[in-house]
Design a protein that fits this description.
Strand content: 5-15%
CATH class of one domain: Mainly Alpha
Radius of gyration: 17 Å
Order of helices and strands: HEEH
Largest sheet: 2 strands, antiparallel
Oligomer: single chain
Number of strands: 2
CATH topology of one domain: Helix Hairpins
Strand order of the largest sheet: 1-2
Distance between the termini: 33 Å
Number of helices: 2
Structural class: mainly alpha
Length: 96
């Protein structure tokens, strides 16, 4: 699975409708998940510790709460932007 920010479909030509819908549903799920993360981090008390999981392992490292919140908001914005692009491309296909 590609990491966040990488989109294998870039430059790959038109995406079939089923694949596009599947990707849209997956993005919608990720957006909901990311909204929960942002909300949880926003509501933490200042003195609470936050840990970040090392990718592909069960190792956790202490992280700065404000940095994690900022990063989570950026990821959410990217996901929303990608979702909006898919919706816009579907609308233009319908108009044609």
């Amino acid at each position: 699975m590609p990491s966040r920010g990488e989109r294998p479909e870039d430059g790959a030509g038109p995406v079939p409708a089923e694949s596009s819908t599947l990707h849209k549903d997956e993005l919608s799920s990720k957006i909901k998940e990311q909204k929960v993360v942002v909300d949880e981090l926003s509501n933490l008390k200042k003195n609470r510790k936050v840990y970040r999981q090392q990718q592909n392992s069960n190792i956790f490292f202490l992280a700065d709460r404000t940095e994690m919140l900022s990063e989570s908001k950026n990821i959410l914005d990217e996901l929303k932007k990608e979702y909006q692009e898919i919706e816009n491309s579907e609308k233009t296909k319908i108009k044609k």
